[in-house]
Write a structure and sequence with these properties.
Order of helices and strands: EHEHEHHEEEHHEHHEEEEEEEEEE
Largest sheet: 6 strands, antiparallel, barrel
Helix content: 10-25%
Structural class: alpha/beta
Strand content: 25-35%
Length: about 375
């Protein structure tokens, strides 16, 4: 790798800063890039990008490295933000950070600058490995809480082959200790939370700005009784309990009727209606190679199935399941145990049975 030209995507956070330290301490002199993204009318929002850029600049100055700002605001709005708003408006639960990795960090950046480099390094908690056939696989980090393979499960194979994750073999605590030992300026800086382009902006405020409000009924799914009104289905996600604002709770959001603009809720601390064990996924995206043979002659009766583990949201747990391909190109997921809060539009991320290799991901459809 010594003769490779490396670009580092530097965010201003502690993780990507330790990436720079790791590369420099191993004899590399990478070029660093800060990707500028943000809301459409940036002056109207309180954004952390100025502080991020100051941190990134300080780290590059410390190691005498070049830093260039790459403006991907338009690409982010045209692709990721619009995708998010369209999905939310249609009643789905999208993950914009997943699409940001594919379309911006390894997409638009590559078109603007990344194509000049052999490798692109990021601060993701993930790893890669190459098998006997020379194929590159995305594999999980040893830190189950911070592992970010689920956010990378939609990138393309060619993007994966150029990606390196220099801190992916560490746990978060080790990264913090390295940053403190090396006196990096952001060693104690808190991790960013929420969607990457929003900064400190409240997500519901952002939805309200672009989608407005659309009041509708809230109905108890068990009794059919009206219990209140919602201000817009896009303000609620399947499985949500906190922030519903209805008396006599607790209530869980369990279903949406988009055509009639009805939010269905279920009463109780752990209602069965908040769980789902079998569901379909479509638009399957395989990272390295398809899990099933691409045989158009297979019938519903001879479809293979495989034991896997899955994630449907960014949590520490990997859930055992079986995946079966369907003749129409979709796949059916059958989890070993019922899963709370399965929602259409979420990405279901597929791993091997030992949750080591990440095979890819697909969008949940109910």
């Amino acid at each position: 790798m010594k003769d490779k030209k490396i670009a580092v995507l530097l965010s201003g956070g502690v993780d990507s800063s330790v990436v720079v330290y790791e590369l420099v301490s191993n004899g590399y002199k990478p070029d660093c890039f800060y990707i500028k993204i943000g809301p459409e009318e940036q002056e109207e929002w309180d954004c952390t990008s100025e502080e991020d850029l100051e941190m990134a600049t300080a780290v590059c100055h410390r190691y005498d490295l070049k830093l260039e700002v790459i403006d991907c605001h338009k690409e982010y709005w045209d692709n990721v933000t619009r995708y998010t708003m369209e999905k939310v408006k249609a009643g789905f639960t999208p993950n914009p950070d997943v699409m940001c990795n594919r379309l911006i960090k390894f997409g638009a950046f590559h078109e603007k600058k990344g194509h000049e480099y052999d490798l692109i390094a990021t601060g993701h908690y993930a790893q890669t490995e190459v098998d006997e056939q020379g194929r590159t696989w995305l594999v999980t980090s040893p830190d189950p809480v911070k592992d970010q393979t689920d956010f990378l499960a939609q990138i393309y194979d060619w993007q994966l082959q150029k990606a390196i994750f220099p801190i992916g073999h560490y746990e978060k605590g080790e990264v913090r200790r390295i940053a403190e030992r090396e006196h990096l300026i952001n060693a104690k800086r808190k991790d960013s939370q929420g969607i990457c382009f929003l900064g400190k902006i409240n997500y519901n405020d952002y939805l309200r700005k672009y989608l407005g409000e659309k009041p509708g009924l809230v109905v108890d799914i068990e009794t059919g009784k009206k219990i209140g009104m919602h201000k817009g289905l896009w303000f609620h996600t399947i499985g949500q309990r906190h922030g519903l604002g209805f008396g006599g709770g607790p209530w869980f959001a369990v279903k949406k009727n988009i055509k009639k603009n009805i939010l269905f809720v279920s009463h109780g601390y752990d209602p069965k209606t908040a769980y789902k064990q079998t569901f379909k996924v479509h638009d399957m995206h395989w990272l390295t190679m398809p899990l099933f043979p691409e045989d158009n002659n297979m019938s519903e009766d001879n479809m293979p199935d495989k034991k896997v583990t899955i994630k449907i949201r960014h949590t520490a747990g990997y859930l055992p399941a079986t995946i079966t391909p369907n003749a129409d190109g979709t796949c059916t997921i059958h989890a070993d145990q019922p899963i709370h809060g399965v929602a259409p539009g979420q990405f279901c991320v597929i791993y091997d049975a030992n949750h080591h290799r990440c095979y890819g991901s697909a969008e949940i459809t109910l």
